[in-house]
Amino acid sequence: MHPEIDTDMAKELKDLTKRSENYSQWYNELVVKADLAEQAPVRGCMVIKPYGYAIWEKIQRTLDDKFKETGHVNAYFPLLIPKSYLSREAEHVEGFAKECAVVTHYRLKNAEDGSGVIVDPAAKLEEELIVRPTSETIIWATYKNWIKSYRDLPILCNQWANVMRWEMRPRLFLRTAEFLWQEGHTAHATREEAEQEARRMQQVYADFVEGYMAVPVVRGVKSETERFAGALDTYTIESMTQDGKALQCGTSHFLGQNFAKAFDVQFINKENKLEYVWATSWGVSTRLMGALIMAHSDDNGLVLPPKLAPIQVVIVPIYKNTDDLAQISAKVDILVEALKKKGISVKYDDADNKRPGFKFADYEVKGVPVRVALGMRDLEAGTCEIMRRDTLEKETVPFDGLEELIPNMLDDMQTAIFEKAKAWRDARMVEVNSYDEFKEKIEAGYFVLAHWDGTAETEAKIKEETKATIRCLPFGMKEEPGTDVYSGKPAARRVLFARSY
To answer: Which of 222, 240, 286, 378 fits a disulfide with 234 by CB distance 3.0 to 4.6 angstroms?
Structure first.
């Protein structure tokens, strides 16, 4: 329809490494080219750019609504945690000790030689402070003041915050030293209520990731080796990236009474007896951005599910002069208002500092779901060109029908993107019964369902030899007894193995 645009587009489309050539490089380039994030001056940290943050805001807003629908409220707790707090729960401190950033002084001063500022040795803290890697310890120290009786329970708190875990092999969104997340921390009067809460939040995460991110997940519980430090059970949702690796998208932890005992949080129950509180914690992070990119995107750039796209529809006018633009704009303005009333985010890009071909390429890289092009010939014919980002299919349609066509197209895209990702995942999830087949499938990038004898020794040996870990003991699978693929010992059930990010 617009051959001059296609020519421009071919010239302007930014070079992007093919997934088949180097998947890791493709991902790193795409994060930058799509204007999502960039490396920060501080090693291991990132700058989330406005377009990337707009996606995170949609994730955050939707999840926050879901948390509040289930009775949770937001609070905020300190960034800095006294070092002694982490010593109170032995397994917890062991799990995070190697990742902690430590504040030792509280003042700088000018160097006497004029070379700049130095740490003032006289300003040493009496007790070092830890930049929070997670907040269980400081929150349970606080809950001790809030909880006296069963009438004070349950407490259903969430906080949106940043955390610091000193990452040795950083990667934008997937593994950074500082990242954004939410962490829920709840307190309950009974074990049953706490376990129910942990499983409920796993389901909230799964519904969001599948329903909004269009990413299929496997729900399950972690092995003892892989569970959260200080938890009795960790419930997880695991997604598959296009290179066949697992990505943990969210976890929910049943903490039992471990933290209540560590911080002496007791309450008087209905029988007038003292009892320790039962606890959960649960969280998702900006790692979800990595899952979103890796599940759907292609060699042309991002593919975003419409529900999370900052711009769901972009309209690009094709014109030669200001009179042409005025005529096109008069028609487009009516459509824009109609779509906005339906809750659809629309951008009419009539900026004159970029050619249409560049705009087309830019919005394609950024994954805008629907693109409409309208020129003077279209205006005269009463038509326009519309393109779906997920399939790259273009068609000429009546302009006056767009108000109904676009919402239906967005709904169809949301479903189609999920079904495509699910078909990919399902085709690469296999049951194996021998160690040779296990190694072959893991190397080829499959999710492998194999029998495990339940021992940490076998789990460690498999990880050492294949780099595959137990992602979870999946829910919904019949517990079929068999023989461990590695040790040959009896095994009660199959578990999910994969390499992971």
So the answer is: 222
